[in-house]
Design brief:
Blueprint: E1 7-12, H1 20-30, E2 36-41, H2 47-53, E3 59-64, H3 71-75, E4 78-79, H4 81-86, E5 91-96, E6 99-103, H5 106-117, E7 128-131, H6 135-147, E8 152-155, H7 159-169, E9 173-176, E10 190-193, E11 217-220, H8 229-236, E12 240-242, H9 245-260, H10 268-275
Parallel strand pairs: 1-2, 1-3, 4-6, 7-8, 7-10, 8-9, 10-11, 11-12
Antiparallel strand pairs: 3-5, 5-6
The chain binds 2'-monophosphoadenosine-5'-diphosphate (ATR).
């Protein structure tokens, strides 16, 4: 019997906005690998059943996006340390016999994007400012702590959510009022927006940015548009800027390698392909 063509995909609800099919499809094409990567719209109530059936249909794994990232942890049989710390998974691998390995590569993608886009950045040298305390923020904070950032100044519209992250991730996190979000910039080495503010169709990112400085590295997890108000302001003062598309691309690398057996490269061509369609 010939070997079945491996299938992978992304499960979410909705999932039509996802750039992952374009990116993984591009990698499969340029490396001439057998395989398909498919967007899979899955409702919450069907999640467990779908994850039971996908491996029987030839799926080797899936990426997971909103709103299933937390729920899949309870359905996995093996959970990586970093997925457990973050409390969510974005990459599932079907190991056979019903075994599901859940991993979270968001923090890896976030750091790799910064290290590649701004190799001069030293995480240990100065505090980081993080805006937002939602799911994306958890992955960013876990990655920054692991990278040795000395202090994280965290500001979120609803303060209790930020306090929650402080109790979980520890005293390196300092919580600040959302109304003072612009005041915590001086002295920071890194500035990160993890909120959905500034995304096409959402409210604008309105944090006062007068305290941005040329010595800072500024990044935004929002990548639609690629040049957000935050990044444009950072660029105009001469700060280093890394956009959010790189995080999306790098978080996809470990999954692709696990499923299709080859580690893909993130290049300009990957960027173009991910943005296309
Ligand atoms: P994700 O998984 O993408 O982080 P999320 O968990 O819904 O999504 O978190 C969204 C983040 O954007 C949160 O930090 C949220 O702030 P709250 O915790 O106060 O909701 C932030 N956010 C969304 N809309 C916002 C707005 N209009 N003003 C300020 N912050 C906002």
């Amino acid at each position: 019997m010939t070997k079945p063509i491996p299938l992978a995909g992304v499960i979410g609800w909705p999932v039509s906005h996802s750039r992952s099919p374009a990116m993984h499809g591009h990698w499969l094409r340029i490396m001439n690998l057998p395989g398909h990567y498919i967007p899979l719209e899955v409702a919450q109530e069907d999640l467990a059943r779908v994850l039971g059936i996908l491996p029987k249909m030839g799926f080797v794994g899936v990426n997971v996006t909103v709103p299933h990232k937390e729920a899949v942890l309870n359905l996995a049989t093996v959970v990586s340390d970093r997925a457990a710390v973050i409390g969510a998974a974005n990459t599932l691998t079907f190991l056979g016999d019903g075994e599901i390995y859940a991993d979270n590569t968001d923090g890896y993608g976030f750091l790799k994007n910064l290290q590649t886009g701004a190799p001069e950045w030293d995480p240990k040298a100065a505090p980081a400012v993080v805006y937002g305390a939602g799911g994306a923020s958890r992955a960013v904070i876990a990655a920054l702590i692991e990278a040795g950032v000395p202090q994280i100044r965290l500001s979120n519209r609803s303060r209790p959510r930020a306090e929650g992250l402080r109790s979980e991730f520890g005293s390196r996190i300092e919580v600040h009022e959302w109304v003072r979000a612009g005041d915590i910039l001086p002295g920071a080495g890194l500035v990160v927006n993890t909120t959905s503010l500034g995304m096409t169709g959402k409210s604008e990112f309105t944090v006062p940015l007068g305290n941005l400085a040329p010595s800072m590295l500024v990044t935004d997890l929002v990548y639609t548009p690629l040049e957000t108000r935050l990044l444009a302001a950072a660029r105009s003062v001469g700060a280093s800027v890394v956009d959010g598309l790189g995080m999306l691309m790098y978080q996809g690398v470990p999954g692709f390698e696990r499923w299709f057996g080859v580690r893909p490269e993130v290049t300009e061509e990957t960027r173009r392909a991910t943005l296309s369609v």
